[in-house]
Amino acid sequence: MEGGSAVPEELPEIITNKDEMRKWSRAMRCRGNTIALVPTMGYLHQGHLSLVEKARSLADVVVVSIYVNPGQFSPSEDLSTYPSDFDGDIRKLGSVSGCRRVDAVFHPRNLYDYGIIGRKGKGGIEFEGLREEGETGLPASGVSSCVEEMGGGHETWVKVERLERGLCGKSRPVFFRGVATVVTKLFNIVDPDVAVFGKKDYQQWRIVQRMVRDLDFGIRIVGSDILREEDGLAMSSRNVRLSPEDREKALSISKSLFQAKSLAETGQTNCGELRDSLVQAITGAGGKVDYVEIVDQQSLETVGEVNSPVVICIAAWFGNVRLIDNIEISV
Ligand code: AMP
Fold it and tell me: Which pathway does the record list (predicted)?
């Protein structure tokens, strides 16, 4: 397998080629193993490892995918500055054992490269073959991701129509289309029995659950709790990009979420009031709110009163870093 031979035994097998990944999964299945997949974009932290632990409890072998998916970034977003440290990730995975052990890492170079003959252009490879003269390659809606920018002719997208519209979908119009599509690709390549997603990305978890139900994937989708730093900040690969001052200010997100939960649990169930106090706490600390929403845990529709299971979801900017966090409340 590509890259696999030079790796010491205690490290997970590294697979970069999708056919090799399929072969590996088939071989595992032939030996009677069940497979769990943990999709990630790398720059791994303890939050990711907690998903691995969950995955280990659910299947015989665990695959972690590490792939920064251009399909979920619009050209104006932070694809090029998204943190990555593949060697560090492998070291981290190699240093864990027992319930956090990983069997294989799937690390494809480009999941949207279909081997179309390219010619060298100024900015690297320019693809030809699928595009007609004069075509922009961008969808008619004018909404595009970095995949359309790359060219290459990828044109099939999975959209979970209603669930993707609100919350992060409002300010990131191509995001969930990209997530649902790359998760579909990973499911088709790795063919897992179960896949574990963090509730940190609550809307993403619900969207993947809905997609799997609607399209009859035979894969169990499991949500895993948010892992936080000791001071409450939700762990995220993007946290390293926060200045020390912004990191301190960003604590207003988790603090205000905990406070809102305890207020709701002690009878302050009006969502308008809860929302106002959350917005105030974050803007007061110097953050810029993208959204604060209190929504039904399943439908992700806004609710007016906390009298059924809800989740408070927040996205806010601190400096040039956009953070998301949430808290479930079941009163
Ligand atoms: P990412 O690499 O950010 O795309 O995340 C990969 C997976 O890890 C997603 O399912 C995330 O929801 C999950 N994840 C990220 N941060 C955390 C966290 N702090 N706690 C639990 N899961 C997390």
Answer: Cofactor biosynthesis; (R)-pantothenate biosynthesis; (R)-pantothenate from (R)-pantoate and beta-alanine: step 1/1
Ligand 1 mean position, distance from CA 189 (Å): 21
**Ligand 1, closest atom to CA 237?**
3
Closest CA to 165 of 322, 311, 312, 300: 300
Q: Strand 35-40 and strand 194-198: pairing? A: parallel
Lowest-confidence region among 125-139, 154-168, 215-229: 125-139
Bridge partners, 329 (sequence order): 310
In the DSSP assignment, the letter for residue 226 is P
What's the pLDDT at 94? Answer: 87
CA 1 to CA 114: how far, in whole Å? 20
What are the structure tokens assigned to 276, written together? 């106002």
- 235 CA closest ligand 1 atom index: 19
pTM to 2 decimal places: 0.90
Average pLDDT, the chain: 90
Give the pLDDT score at 132.
39
Q: Residue 142: what pLDDT?
A: 63
Beta pairing, strands 194-198 & 220-224? parallel
The proportion of the chain whose per-residue pLDDT surpasses 90, expressed as a percent, equals 83
Residue 122's pLDDT is what?
A: 35
Instruction: Mention every residue, 6+ apart, whose C-beta is less than 8 A from residue 1.
Output: 13, 14, 15, 17, 20, 24
107 is an active site residue: no
Please tell me whether residue 256 adopts helix, strand or coil conformation.
helix
Q: 55 and 194 in contact (C-beta within 8 Å)? A: yes
Give the binding-site residues of ligand 1, using a 6 Å CB cut-off: 40-41, 47-48, 50-51, 197-198, 200-201, 224, 226-227, 234-237
Q: Cα 134 vs. chain centroid, distance in angstroms?
A: 35
